Amino acid sequence: MDELQNIQDLIYIIRGQRVMLDFDLAMLYEVETRSLNQTVKRNARRFPNDFMFQLTEQEWSLISSQFVMTSRMKRPKKSLPYAFTELGALMLSSVLRSPVADETSIKITRAFVAMRQMLTFSTLPEKVVTLAQELYKLKEEVNEILADQNDINESTRAQLDAISLALSELQASRSQSATLKNRRPIGFILPKEDEE
Length: 196
What we know:
Elements: H1 2-8, E1 11-14, E2 17-21, H2 22-29, H3 33-42, E3 52-54, H4 57-64, E4 82-85, H5 86-95, H6 101-119, H7 124-182
Antiparallel strand pairs: 1-2, 2-4, 3-4
Helix pairs in contact: 1-6, 2-3, 5-6
């Protein structure tokens, strides 16, 4: 299982496809990268565009920045690596005549299949639908709570406004009555008998 994981670690997603690079395949098939590429060129009709393609400089710089080992970087600058899709990696076993080709192609097939299964769980669509339904229910509940809270806030706001108005009217009437008490009466005031 550890060997399968090691092969899966050599599978990259480039141009939306799962691919393996020529030098990794050469290592697995126990041949030189130069020899692998020469064999592929001699059998070019067996490797159409959906089986393999050459990386662009930008793709190569992006991929090579992920490598820890420097030995992979020792390619001639003009020579960009080839990427082999699952079909291309399997086709290599028919054109490479090495003692390990058959065994290696089985391992590579298992790695691609395991990766495909890992990325496309059969239960994944069901889980996504279930999560979407739960999210929709949760959204409805939150909207109901917010609507209720908004109604309470409007009702409370109206009550507070009424209380505030009543208090201001009460305060205004008190200050008016206090002002009236402290005023001197208008008109002629007769002197009290004691004052005479």
